[in-house]
Specification:
The protein is mainly beta and 126 residues long. It is built from no helices and nine strands. It has a single domain, classed as Immunoglobulin-like, CATH 2.60.40.
């Protein structure tokens, strides 16, 4: 994530779920049109990666989700992406992926492009 006075990021840790969200806000207090969220949830050695978008106003954009998973056999990468259209106030799951293993062995990045701006959210495993 690049440094900018218009970017705020949040990391939420609750139970066995880890999430990271990126919200764009400007000093004029006018909210940006899109917030992205990336969560990792582990249940019985199954990791679910969920990429979401929340729109404050109508928005059309694209997303790219990249997931790296480490294991004794090496590293595997999963890539998903596509277009999305959201109405004002709408929330959508852009992608969901389930993996065998532990969330500490998974790194995920969600890149969202909308209204001419690109931002990346990362799920940080602790």
């Amino acid at each position: 994530m690049t440094a900018s006075p218009h970017i705020a990021a949040a990391l939420v840790v609750a139970g066995c779920a880890t999430g990271a969200g990126l919200a764009l806000s400007s000093p004029s207090a006018t909210p940006e049109p899109l917030v992205c969220e990336l969560t990792l949830n582990e249940v019985r050695r199954q990791v679910t990666v969920t990429a979401k978008a929340h729109a404050r106003q109508p928005v059309h954009g694209t997303y790219a989700l990249e997931i790296d998973q480490r294991s004794a056999g090496g590293t595997s990468t999963v890539r998903q992406g596509g277009d999305f259209d959201l109405s004002a106030g709408e929330e959508a799951i852009l992608a969901t992926t389930r993996l065998s293993g532990r969330k500490r062995d998974v790194d995920a990045r969600l890149t969202v492009t909308a209204n001419g701006q690109t931002r990346t959210c990362s799920a940080i495993t602790l």
